């Protein structure tokens, strides 16, 4: 829920342990709150010293995105300029969330040293309204809405194991298909029986051969042999007829 334009009530209760800027008399403190362009100043607590009390209330119009208040404390002087005691920042996160905050906020001097505390009480009436559920309207004031879309869950098909193939029935009886041409008788394509080579007919089938051959006569002819080949019965050369 936006805080733009909402009112925040702030009560300045008082200060504690302020730094003393007076040497002889007691100091006269007052508090200034600044939020955006809004500026609030308390009355001066005469002779308030280090622990003045104010009990003053103001209301601030909130601005979206700005969630802190600047606070400063001064000492009032009648002759010279007012003395700066210290300043600090007040965070609004707690009061905007819970609606109430009564914390003490520390202030520091220009040199960064601790200068005391400022007690504030803050109220925010619209805290937590964004978290509260709105009142349900009557059924007649709204048109019926469509039921929420809830698609049915998609599941994958169950796994089916492959069908076992019977070795006795494979291939099937209708194989090959009827559309294919039938193969002729394979016996028509067997090669003819050729006769054995010629060399196998000229030589005996077995080795060594079983047929015996006459030995050749020695060469040269032995002594006493008149001529070659050896003489046959009769005279060589034969006598003339």
In short:
Residues 199-218 are annotated as: Disordered. By secondary structure, the protein is mainly beta. It has helices at 93-98, 198-202; strands spanning 7-16, 29-35, 38-41, 53-61, 68-75, 83-91, 100-101, 104-108, 114-123.
Question: What can you tell me about this protein's structure?
Answer:
The protein has 241 residues and is mainly β. It has a domain at 6-124: C2 domain (Immunoglobulin-like, Sandwich). The chain is 5% helix and 27% strand. The protein contains 2 helices and 9 strands, in the order ββββββαβββα. Strands 1, 4, 7, 8 and 9 form a 5-stranded antiparallel sheet that branches. A hairpin with a 2-residue loop joins strand 2 (29-35) and strand 3 (38-41). It starts with 6 loop residues before the first strand and ends in a 39-residue tail after the last helix. Residues 1-106 form the C2 domain. Residues 199-214 have a biased composition (Low complexity). InterPro entries: C2_dom, C2_domain_sf, Ingression_C2_domain.
List its salient traits.
single chain; 241 residues; mainly beta; Immunoglobulin-like; five-stranded antiparallel beta sheet; four-stranded antiparallel beta sheet; 2 helices; elongated; Ingression_C2_domain; C2 domain-containing protein; C2_dom
- Secondary structure tally, helices: 2
Q: Report the sheet-strand fraction.
A: 25-35%
If you average the pLDDT, what whole number results?
Answer: 77
CATH level-1 class of the domain at 6-124: Mainly Beta
CATH architecture annotation name of the domain at 6-124: Sandwich
């Amino acid at each position: 829920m936006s805080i733009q334009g909402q009112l925040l009530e702030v009560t300045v209760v008082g200060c504690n342990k302020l730094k003393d800027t007076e040497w002889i008399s007691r100091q006269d403190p007052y508090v200034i709150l600044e939020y955006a362009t809004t500026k609030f100043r308390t009355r001066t607590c005469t002779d308030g010293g280090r622990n003045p009390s104010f009990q003053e209330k103001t209301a601030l119009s909130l601005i979206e995105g700005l969630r802190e208040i600047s606070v400063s404390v001064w000492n009032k002087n009648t002759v010279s300029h007012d003395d700066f005691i210290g300043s600090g920042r007040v965070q609004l996160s707690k009061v905007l969330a819970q609606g109430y905050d009564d914390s003490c906020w520390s202030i520091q001097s220009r040199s960064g040293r601790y200068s005391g505390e400022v007690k504030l009480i803050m109220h925010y009436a619209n805290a937590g309204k964004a978290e509260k559920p709105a009142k349900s309207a009557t059924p007649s004031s709204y048109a019926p809405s469509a039921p929420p879309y809830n698609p049915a869950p998609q599941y994958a098909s169950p796994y089916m194991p492959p069908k076992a193939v019977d070795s006795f029935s494979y291939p099937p009886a209708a194989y090959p298909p009827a559309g294919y041409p039938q193969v002729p008788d394979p016996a028509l394509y067997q090669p003819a029986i050729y006769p054995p080579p010629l060399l196998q007919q000229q030589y005996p089938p077995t080795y060594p051969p079983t047929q015996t051959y006459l030995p050749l006569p020695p060469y040269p002819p032995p002594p006493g042999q008149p001529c070659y080949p050896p003489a046959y019965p009769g005279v060589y050369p034969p006598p003339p007829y």
